[in-house]
Amino acid sequence: MNSGIVFLSEGRINIFNNNTLNVLNCEVADKYKQREREIRARNEWKNSGAGAMFTGSFHFEDDSKDFKLSIVGLSQSIDERLVFSINYENGGGIYFKHLDPSQPETPIFVNNKTRFFELSVSKSGYIAVSSATDMFERHITLLRIDDTYPQDVTEGDCSDCNPKWSLKDENVLYYDSAGIAYSSNGHFAGYGPRSIYRLNVETGELAEVLEGDKFEYIQPFEDDEGNLYYIKRPYKVGSGKMSAKDMVKAPGKVFRAFGGWLDFVSRRYTGESLKTGGANPAKGNPKSQGQLFVDGNLLEADKALKRNAAAGDKNPGFVPRDWQLIRRNAAGNEEVLQAGVMSYSITKGGIIYSNGKFVISGESATKVHLAAKLIGGAAK
Question: How far is 16 from 9, CA to CA, in rounded Å?
Answer without folding.
Answer: 12
